[in-house]
Please model this.
Amino acid sequence: MQTTYIETQQISFQDFKNQILEDYKLGRISREMSYLGRREVLTGKAKFGIFGDGKELPQLAMAKVFKNGDFRSGYYRDQTFALAIDALTVGSFFAQLYADTSVEREPASAGRQMNGHFATRSLNEDGSWKDLTAQKNISSDISPTAGQMPRLLGLAQASKIYKSVKFDGSEKFSKEGNEVAFGTIGDASTAEGHFWETLNAACALQVPMIVSIWDDGYGISVPTKNQRAKADISEMLSGFQRKEGENQGCEIIQVKAWDYPALLDAYARAEQFARMESVPVVVHVIEVTQPQGHSTSGSHERYKNEDRLAWESQFDGLVKFREWILNYSIEIEGKEEIIASVEELDAIDEEAKKTVKAGQKSAWESYQKTITDLIQSVLPLVENLKGQNTEIENYINQFNKLVSKAKKDVFHLVRRSLLATRGTNSAERNQLMQKYNEIFEVEKDNYSSHLYSQSQWKAENVKEIKPIYSDASEDVDGRVVVRNNFDKIFEKYPETLVFGEDAGNIGDVNQGLEGMQEKYGDVRVADTGIREATILGQGIGMAMRGLRPIAEIQYLDYILYCLQGMSDDLATVQYRTKGGQKSPVIIRTRGHRLEGVWHSGSPMAGILNLSKGILVLVPRNLTKAAGFYNTMLQSDDPSIIVECLNGYRLKEKQPDNLGEFTVPVGKIEVTKEGKDVTLVTYGSTWRIVMEAAEELEKLGISAEVIDVQSLIPFDLTNEIAESVKRTNRLVVIDEDVEGGTSAFILQQILEKQKAFRFLDSDPLTIAANDHRPAYASDGDYFSKPSSDDMVERIYALFNETNPGKYPAIF
Model:
């Protein structure tokens, strides 16, 4: 069992003294990083800066109780903490400030995130998991305020799950569930709903979580009193305080940001509650200062009066820390002992400045060398073209006049030179073209890799295993197929769990999990409160710690509550860490073709546009859905699987190889062959398209029906274009609004697959009306594409070209 900070603090005075001076040194280094970082922005070397000055002491205290295996989900000012746990160096801090694209020099994001966004690398280069229990872990930061909170819940809950769940390799992720998840948030961001939803869920679930609130009295320029119902968040949270004997609520500890001994005590107590009792804790750190204001984009002198600024100067944490050190004395065996003299602290201050300056200088030189090397590899090749176009010399002169040069300037020079020499076939131009292709591939990797998994476990690599049927295969309700497949999944993958509203006790609203909680327990098949954002957050955090969560969102319409987390967090995990972290959560939901404004929506275009980085899978029945679950559990890509809401009671033949068969992603299926027109659709609409296709046959129109099956990735082998090549007509049918998913599908087919070359008629899209569906079956009929709509509009295509054979209906 892990020990806590309190239990390990029997040390000698010399060790105590060394720890204090090490903290002071680290605090001073962090402060100098903030100071110099701001100057680098104001002198133009960096674009923007946001720094952690003023928060050094609480972050040093928090770092002392942060152990191997623990996780942090935080906000973008925790540089002192990152330094203290060796997740950041002076060099990597400035490399991030300059947006250096080297993973070695800037391991948090390889230049993809602005400064202050920290992360550790959970993955090896091949995408396999490191031993997360052997390192201190930071889940990659995001800027949206309070957006880090839902993920924190999952990171904390994973520890509770690991107390009872074991599987092959689980020792890489947890040591008996003794890890704590640490969250950090600015005081003003506690006004966000994500903060309250997360804390509420944590108090209900009783997970080992410590949330630090850095309270500097402002949200940028807006004072705390204008942020919430109460200026004091501790007072506001008092109803969350747990009562003796109750297994609900949290502990609340308030402490001053400049009181070093009190901070050590506060975090020691917080760790004791969280690690030993699995109780969530809020550490409200008050009287925090911001010596340089919010960011480099403005001055805090504009909104803080002279008294406030004077107070901040007096109660600066490092100033008070220095005072405390100089005033500290203790008598040991008749001899007065002190921690340090003024001269010793001055020496530390001076050494900190030198350390930071040296780190900044090295980072800048390394960053500049990347650009210098690029220029040296390209410029001679451009100069070789001078004789081929008079403009080339002007381009070179303009380039040389630039005071500072970035990669984009080099590429601009090359591309203008190639444009100027178009139509010329020379060895010199070919050399430049070859070099351009070479450097472009490097930068494409630097800036655009890892939106999706690039490992051997990416979903595209999962081999298709077709369903097996025999004479003994039964016709059952669709929900039985998916239920029995889940049974096989939970048996096969002990790391898999599912949770959501009504998912546990009643086996979900459509009985797709019937009996699963009784069989596998309420840890692996769990009910949640009505709180979609943190259901998703549970999934993200758990998946970051090696579990395979299926986060159930009861209806597709409710995904809107999750879109911020899907878009800003889950979809960007691999990208914003350049393959350093992953979160292969499966989002399970159901939708389409029900009744009512709030249960039959189709926000697919929003999902597609906002969630690039997440696979979007749209099975037409429950057998296909089951196959997608089997596929994705072998993959390390995150995904959303949209089950057909009207398919649970429809009969399907149950495969004999439940839990084994897979549906490949990015693979379409031709469900009806035809020669006159290609009809492309997905999900619940497929059944209606099939009905329409049969009616069209009676009218002399042979329609080929294609089920897309997966929207992201989309038809990886361009089979739809081959169909259009045969039929010469294309219709895309969807129950999203006009210009929604149908527009995406059309763009993929016409632009990417170049199918426009084969069309004899304008491509046609048939979509729902732009309003939400009105209630009941009549509302569905008049709001979304009906079979009648499809038949009439597709028939009209043929009427246009051959009115004699296909006379007008109306």
In short: The radius of gyration is 30 Å. The longest strand covers residues 730-737. The domain at 669-801 is CATH 3.40.50.920 (Rossmann fold). The chain has a mean pLDDT of 96.
